[in-house]
Model the fold of this input.
Amino acid sequence: MGYVEGILISTCINIVCVSGLLLLTGYIGLFSMGHACFLCIGAYTAAILTKYFSVPYFLALLVGGAVAAVSSIIIGWPTLRGKMSSDCFAIATLGFAEAVRVILSNIDHPMIGGALGISAIPQKTTLPVAIIIAALSVLFAYNYSRSQHGKIARAIRDYADASELIGVNIFHEKLKVLMISAFFCGVGGGMMAHYYTYMVPNTFGTVMSTNLLTAVVLGGVVSVSGPVVATTILTATPEVLRFLSNWRLAIYGLVLILMMRFKPDGLMGFKEFSLQPLRNAVQRVQVALKKRGK
Done:
């Protein structure tokens, strides 16, 4: 049960991170290849606060997310203000992520630990906590996508020039969504640090960033529930295929290729999960019970 619980907690952590990234990629149209750096910043911030300053766990997560959001301005201000293309923005985020990882690896301060990282972090992330935070993250992403802000983001993605003509500040909107996505990744990084209780800068490399982006694209870039489902599948599949030893990664890659070939819009495409069929079924049962009562 501990093994299954670990997979579920990892899935919830990834869902928190993907909830922010899907807004940046799917709704504003910016691809990031370096979002793992925001997990790294949030993880280090939250771990230092709880380990050395005895800050409460939830407050440390919020501060870690806030620090990650503020740090995103460093890469967002020069790139987005200059109207850099999506491809160039992705390369810039990749470079920024590598810079953060290398800098942390070379800081020998006792609180940071350099390449050895931080150990003996209090284990605060439990399964109920992870589920609650993941649910709140998905709820926020869903509400944001349906709000006026989400509509503006989609307008910028599809009709940037027309949006600018009617008075939309494209730079501010893009920077805002970037900061929101970085905040969620910072919170996810803090959860990760307080679950594994040990971390090194190399953990937050390009592979982690690629996995997050893969979950968004595989689930459907204009869907909220799609990336959540894809994150669950991508987190669990390597563990399910572990008995195949070295072949499991090859099968994992083949599944992704086939998915992109036969369903390029992602698992959900433009659709969302809805509770309406369940409500309709309940209403039918209620009507049937009333008829029997008569």
About this structure: The radius of gyration is 21 Å.
